[in-house]
Design goal:
Helix content: over 70%
Low-confidence stretches: 1-17
Largest sheet: 2 strands, antiparallel
Distance between the termini: 141 Å
Length: 216
């Protein structure tokens, strides 16, 4: 009985030594540590690679946004330059009209510019015509009671708005445009039709055309 018990104890002790033997093995610990360090290093490398890929992606996005911003800025600057050029051209044309007016009025000069553009006619020709009718004087009185306004429009023939200064200039531009279209852009014929198809009308039309040509 004693011997059997001793054998069982010795057997269990031997198995225990086999099961936990590696815990007391220095090489086993070293291998375990090396494996852990290797795994840790691999993990760090993966993280670095991922971070690098993310950084590259962010850099590409940033570069794209910068490119888009630069393009938007260039477009904006282009629009600003275009707007400045248009405004400069507009002011130059208004100043040219103002210089040709017999009675200087910058507001009437701008209305003349706008009306000429609205009806696609020469602003210089419109200016010369109004000069001949009223000299751009807002106090002008016409001898014919049916004729009124800066453009000397006869209400007997033209049923169009002709009360405010804007209406008077736009009405003049409308009628001149109508006659220019009717006579295929012939200035003399259009002015004669405006002034009245008669000998005196042709004389007045020739005077307007002469003034227009001298101011070019």
């Amino acid at each position: 009985m004693v011997n059997l018990t001793s054998e069982l104890i010795n057997t269990k002790h031997t198995k225990g030594e086999g099961m936990y033997k590696w815990l007391y093995n220095k090489e086993g610990w070293i291998n375990l540590i090396l494996a852990a360090v290797t795994l840790l290093a691999i993990g760090i490398i993966i993280l670095i690679l991922l971070a690098g890929a993310r950084a590259m992606e962010d850099n590409e996005k940033l570069s794209q946004r910068l490119t888009e911003s630069e393009k938007a800025l260039a477009d904006s600057l282009g629009l600003v330059e275009h707007s400045i050029a248009l405004e400069t051209s507009r002011m130059n044309e208004i100043n040219t009209i103002y210089a040709k007016m017999r009675n200087k009025d910058i507001d009437l000069a701008e209305l003349t510019y706008r009306a000429a553009r609205e009806y696609d006619i020469d602003a210089g020709l419109l200016t010369a015509l109004i000069n001949s009718e009223s000299e751009f004087s807002t106090k002008t009185k016409h001898s014919n009671p049916t004729v009124s306004g800066l453009g000397g429009i006869n209400a007997k023939y033209w049923k169009i708005p002709n009360k405010t200064y804007e209406e008077q200039i736009y009405a003049t531009a409308f009628i001149l445009s109508y006659y220019l279209t009717k006579y295929n852009g012939d200035y003399m014929k259009a002015l004669t039709a405006y002034k009245g198809i008669s000998d005196s009308g042709r004389v007045r039309a020739r005077q307007v055309l002469k003034e227009y040509e001298e101011q070019q």
